[in-house]
Automatic annotation (TrEMBL):
It comes from the Bacteria. Its EC number is 3.1.3.5. It comes from Sulfitobacter guttiformis. Its cofactor is a divalent metal cation. Belongs to the SurE nucleotidase family. HAMAP family: SurE. Binds 1 divalent metal cation per subunit. It catalyses: a ribonucleoside 5'-phosphate + H2O = a ribonucleoside + phosphate. Keywords: Cytoplasm, Hydrolase, Metal-binding, Nucleotide-binding. One of its GO terms (molecular function) is nucleotide binding. Nucleotidase that shows phosphatase activity on nucleoside 5'-monophosphates. This is 5'-nucleotidase SurE. The keyword Ribosomal protein does not apply. It is found in: Cytoplasm.
Length: 261
């Protein structure tokens, strides 16, 4: 198996090394793991692409590149330049430092890479490690992902391909904020929404009088509705969520009146 690995935390992120290990396990001794990741951290860029200027790509070693762009740029660069003659069978994005469950999914560059992979027709999985008081001080906060990552991916690979209207499914996996030994299992879960949790800004006035705003996230320990992704993560389960890039609110169609003329 030929696997492409990327992330949004940057080429030197510890979670990328975790993901390369997962990919090597999945690829096997006869397979290949290609790493093409951002030169710098790209957290929060979503599905952004570098549309208005050229993207610098640098080969660091065989099958390992960094680019000055977003995670979605990494996918485009990989598929249309170094891997164009032998496309990947699988794209893995992550392992993100912090969860990409609930509303975080909408901002995530980790997810953005998986979206682009799916749009390009390649099976794509985003993987993220929830942080919390039970794992953030461990010697390896990623140990749940290290221990269980390859198994979760194998289970996803065994599923039937499911495309609709040209939008392929991609997969969002979040490992719970606990030690590997305390993971209770895997649960299929829909995306949730943490009540009252939003990104916001924190103002800061510099000594020269200029005003700066820091973007701030909300409380990640608040659970959304029972059975949704972040809720089961906080209960100690790995969440697996199939997703598509189709943003249509299909459930609203039947309740809309007086719009078709």
């Amino acid at each position: 198996m030929r696997i492409l690995v990327t992330n949004d935390d940057g080429i030197n992120a510890p979670g990328l090394r975790v993901l390369e290990g997962i990919a090597a396990t999945l690829a096997g001794p006869q397979g290949e793991v290609w790493t093409i990741a951002p030169a710098f951290e790209q957290s929060g860029v979503g599905h952004c692409i570098n549309y208005t200027k050229p993207t610098l790509i640098t080969e660091l070693s065989p099958r390992r590149y960094m680019i000055e762009g977003s995670p979605a740029d990494c996918i485009l660069c990989a598929l249309y330049d170094p891997m164009k003659d032998a496309l990947p069978d699988l794209i893995l994005s992550g392992v993100n430092r912090g969860n990409n469950a609930a509303e975080n999914t909408l901002y995530s560059g980790t997810i953005g890479a998986a979206i682009e992979g799916a749009l390009q027709g390649v099976l794509s999985i985003a993987l993220s490690q929830f942080y919390g008081p039970e794992n953030r001080d461990l010697d390896d906060p990623f140990e749940a992902a290290v221990e269980h990552g390859a198994d979760v991916c194998r289970r996803i690979l065994a599923q039937k391909r499911n495309d609709a209207n040209g939008y392929s499914v991609f997969w969002n996996v979040n490992f719970p904020p606990v030690a590997a030994a305390d993971v209770k299992g895997i649960r299929l879960a829909p995306q949730g929404r943490r009540p009252g949790v939003n990104f916001s800004t924190i103002p800061h006035d510099a000594p020269n009088g200029r005003r700066f705003l820091w973007i701030s996230g909300g409380n990640q320990q608040i659970a959304p509705a029972d059975g949704t992704d972040a809720a089961i993560n906080l209960e100690g389960y790995i969440s697996v969520t199939p997703m598509r890039a189709d943003l249509t609110a299909h459930d609203v169609f039947s309740g809309i009146t007086d719009l078709d003329t």
